[in-house]
Write a structure and sequence with these properties.
By secondary structure, the protein is an alpha+beta fold. The protein has a three-stranded antiparallel β-sheet with strand order 3-5-6, covered by helices on one side. The chain has a two-stranded antiparallel ribbon with strand order 1-2. A hairpin with a 2-residue loop joins strand 5 and strand 6. Helix 2 packs antiparallel against helix 3. The longest helix is centred in the middle third of the chain and has 20 residues. The radius of gyration is 17 Å and the shape is globular. The N and C termini lie far apart (40 Å).
Length: 173
Amino acid sequence: PLQCEGICFPEAFILNERNEFVGYLMREAQGYELSRSVFQPRLFRNRFPQWNKLDTILLCITILNKIKYLNEKGVILGDINPGNILVVSSKEVYFVDCDSYQVGNHPCPVGTANFTPPEIQKKDYKTFLRTQAMENFAIATLLFMIMLPGKPPYSAVGGETPEKNIRKGEFPY
């Protein structure tokens, strides 16, 4: 069982009168998608006009604490995706779309190229288990993009796609 405020993980199955699975119960989430708020400078200023660098750092710590909780429970997010992190404030964050997390010997079957380390770019995510080092690459990328809104770390003017830059180790910063 996961008991962490803000992690919207299925808590119970819902069955119909014939005892057939029809869904699951999960906590309600709120907030703005990280990808549609903090990662876009103009939307960031509109949605969180009072924020300063300290708030951004507190947001990173809040997210890191949730990831640490999951990792300590043996859960690897695998698909760290800014569309799956909702922000209410720097201290209130929700993780959604948690059904693809890697738990035990069940691999995370999906991924987002910008958050995928070079050694597994272009691989079928369903065919292997991710390591903590792979998770750490995604976490570092996420933190970079929070601290430098609008700047994916492997994008460069005149460069190739972020996926190719990751595979080649092209980090312009």
